[in-house]
Design goal:
119 residues
Length: 119
Amino acid sequence: MVLADSALAGAKANWKIGRVYNRLVCNACHRQDGGKVVSPMARKKVEWRRYFEAGDHGTGGSANDSVHYYTSRAYRSAIKAENKAAAKFLKFPDAAMSAHVVEFYIHGAKDSDTPARCQ
């Protein structure tokens, strides 16, 4: 169901919104304790699509290993006190936010016309 919603939202997905979310919300966590951010250039477009379709965040023992959880309102609401950007993104429905992030990774994939590194 999440993928169907994401596919519908994907028609209106905006990679720029996904980039901002990724930099301010995703990277904030990935950088904690010396963690590494994940660059869109790490994979090809088809590989990113498979990753997001599988939905496995692969965090190794975290409370929620679903990649879709980390773009959900429930997650954004849970971290809004310590991450002001997450609070600003609460207006986006789950499927739309997920679609924006997916679009950012597809847009910046290593085989795209605009490969991008995360900062």
